[in-house]
What does this fold into?
Amino acid sequence: MNKIINRYIFREIAFPFIMILFVLTFVLLMGKILQIMDLMVNKGIHVLDIGHLILLIMPNFMLFTIPIALLVSILIAMGRFSADNEITALKSSGVSLTQIYIPVAVASVLAFVCAIVIGNFLVPKSNFATKKFLFELASQNASIGIKEKVFNADFKDLLLYADKIPADGGFMKGVIISDNRVIGEQNTILADKAFLVADPKLMIVKLRLENGSIHTVTPDLKNYRKVDFKIYDINLDLSTTLSTLTDDQKSSTDMTMTELLKQMKKPGLDDAAVRELAIEVHKKFSIPLSCIFFGLLALPLGITSHRAVKSRGFAVGIMIVASYYLLRIGGEALVETGRLSPSIGVWTPNVFFALLGIYLFYMANREISLFQIAYHHFWAQQDEKLRIDD
It folds into this structure.
């Protein structure tokens, strides 16, 4: 009997969980869709490469959507049970709230396992793989956006003009470059020929110029300098188009737990860098564990009878998630400024919602309503005032 009930409750949680996870992930993806469309339309990136890129950034979205989808799906499932009086029927049959929590706990643990695998393994790998993939796209397709007899401003502080580009796009002829990389100094570079050179190890794309000259005029227009060259390399800044990063410059979000701990032990790191790494170490576990606490919190909140089950579940879920992430962002900000230790700043939201979930679960298991407590407390105060007046 209990197995049938457990499977039934788990199934009622699983279906909305999958639907909500898909919707939330799609909504987050929409925030990147304009950049993705720009890569495809203006930069000439192939559709298959765009699909590969979407798959690489998906783990980042799922790390945050899994806890949210779990919370909302439990609220919706429990709310529907209450609205249809199924919770009352289960309790009348001798099924306690603790037994009802078993399939909820199983769903929470499964979501926790998925989140911890994604957060500790897939996210760091996918973050760095995304940057390497973007570099490959940049090195292969940077020339696609360059059209002959058209001024190109895709590269930061450089304005590029090519008089002629062959059909294969292998090189450019009659190149003119306006170089504004040095503040207060305007350089104009003329070259007979130019082509792109990619350095996969350093993840740098260079524009190699051949047989040309550099012309410099001072801001007051009184001095002029000319330098001739046979070969001249310009490092292209692709930050306006695609992000690049070297292996030695991995950010904290690109590192696995082992890499983070190893990086923290390196001598010479300043306090701000150590705090940033410590935040990521704690987040590897705190975000997945929120699945457990959300499951514990959602059960007592969801069993309150209400007709608008789905809308109420979404509303309550959004309020809880917003509160959780506001606390988390505030805690991380205090850690980054050195006002709190990383353990306190990162784990405070989890501890708060864990204690709140335990308290609400205890009250629901004892069938004590918070409204009734407030109501009785109010009338007790009124009776006390009446006795004092008499």
Summary: Residues 155-235 form one domain.
